[in-house]
Design brief:
This protein is 30% helix and 28% strand. It is an alpha+beta fold. The strands form five sheets. It has a four-stranded mixed sheet. It is flat, with a radius of gyration of 42 Å. The N and C termini lie far apart (94 Å). It is a single-pass membrane protein.
């Protein structure tokens, strides 16, 4: 007799391979083997599960621009069932309290308008309750709620999307602006400090060379260029002026 030690679940392992060995009591002992393949049949033990994230009514809010013609698809619901075969065959339907102007595809899960919609529908949020169920016995089901709000123009949708929801959502933007401002200030300060150091270094270098320029009996150092010649100290002053202007620009 083959007895199971633990329950079998088709979703975990649909097929089991076993090898049975039989041994007699003779001398020498003789044995025989038999290979068994056990296919686990499916039972309806898994309810439908929505593959998209289903949160609060605000997270599932759908904004529709009216007027709108009948047959317009406003959303699609998709669910999965871990069972197999007929038990995983899903169908969608609207609950009685949410029929209104909506209809849902029995097997597609597409929610669409049943008749024309206009401004008379108002701006109040309407709830669409969709039931999805499998075809097992007993039937297992799940529900989802979609919230639909009507607007008269696409501008209203853009304004609603761009407006900050709360002070917490606005704070990261302020923090990022402060970081960029600090980086810019540090860059400008570093550039100014570098320019000052170069200017001081060149001034010290020019003072060290002054005895060579004005010493008695020694040649005067000049800086030659296309527009004439300058004394050594004047040449460095022009170079410093050029460097300072370059960094500022």
């Amino acid at each position: 007799v083959l007895v199971m030690k633990v329950p079998l679940d088709r979703e975990e392992n649909p097929v089991h391979h076993l090898v049975l060995t039989a041994t007699d009591g003779g001398e020498p002992k003789l044995t025989g083997t038999l290979q068994l393949v056990i296919n686990v049949l499916d039972v309806d033990d898994n309810p439908p599960v929505f593959n998209q994230s289903i949160g609060s009514l605000e997270e599932n809010l759908i904004l529709l621009v009216v007027p709108m013609m009948p047959g317009h698809i406003v959303g699609k619901i998709h669910a999965l069932d871990a069972d197999s075969g007929y038990n995983a065959w899903l169908s969608y339907e609207l609950l009685e309290e949410s029929h209104g102007p909506w209809t849902v595809g029995q097997y597609s899960g597409e929610v669409s308008t049943k008749y024309p919609l206009d401004e008379s529908e108002g701006s109040k949020i309407q709830s669409v309750l969709v039931l999805v169920k499998d075809h097992g016995k007993p039937q297992l089901s799940a529900t989802v709620i979609l919230s639909v709000s009507f607007v008269t123009s696409i501008i209203a949708i853009k304004m609603d999307v761009n407006l900050p929801r709360s002070e917490e959502s606005f704070m990261p933007l302020v923090d990022s602006i402060n970081i960029y401002l600090i980086i810019a200030i540090c860059s400008v300060s570093s550039l100014f400090l570098l320019t000052t150091l170069i200017y001081v270094a060149l001034q010290c270098h020019c003072k060290a060379k002054d005895p060579m320029v004005y010493g008695p009996g020694m040649a005067t150092l000049v800086c030659a260029s296309e527009v004439g010649s300058w004394f050594y100290s004047n040449c460095y002053k022009v170079i410093i002026f050029f460097l300072v202007n370059s960094f500022i620009l």
